[in-house]
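Working notes for the structural subgroup meeting. M.R. asked for a predicted model of this chain before we commit to crystallization trials. I am recording the input and output together here so anyone reviewing the notebook later can reproduce the run.

Input as submitted:
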Amino acid sequence: MSKKLKQTPKKSLFFINKNTEPLFSKKNRALLSDPLDDNNPITVQVLGICSALAITVQLKPAIVMTLSVIAVMGASNVIVSVLRNLIPNRIRIIVQLVVVASLVALVDQILKAFAYDVYKQLSIFIGLIITNCIVMGRLEAFALGNGVWKSFLDGVGNAAGYGFILILVAFFRELLGSGKLYGYQVIPEAIYELGYENNGLMLLSPMALITVGIFIWIQRARNRKLIEKN
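Returned structure, recorded in token form:
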């Protein structure tokens, strides 16, 4: 009798078993989509509020911050997931901080080299990505216990959900506060000649918090399951 050869399951680049789960299965897609709405880091988990207050006066720095956080979270989740079985439990937080700090330093230097004007606006806040509770929270809660591909999707999804709110807040603050978007005049001069005045209040930090609060109210009015029960 011929012996049947045991076939080992084929694995993809990201160590996903192709025979059991597609790369973009329903569960994997949820890792990308849930943070955009039902599990948004800012409006649902109420994390990362500080940057929403500080850098959303204009659309450009908000977009740059979003791309920076996506790059840092995606890469850091992958690295921590690869090393998760090698990191001693006693020093896991230190290792996570080193990984994030190294990636943030890399992003900081890239911005300094290729987008210096935005770098000057964001220099302090780019450094604060290291202590962003969303970044460290996903490393601790997800990347340490899941595979590389899932961790990558989780990092990108949560960063995108965070960035979506930043861009949305910056859109309304810049438009209503200065009549511009991405630095370009949007409200025509004819409107100003009729007596329209920019709402300077939108450029003040408290309006960022109020705007986020309005988004939270709209989200919970639309999705009643997000309302906390007493």
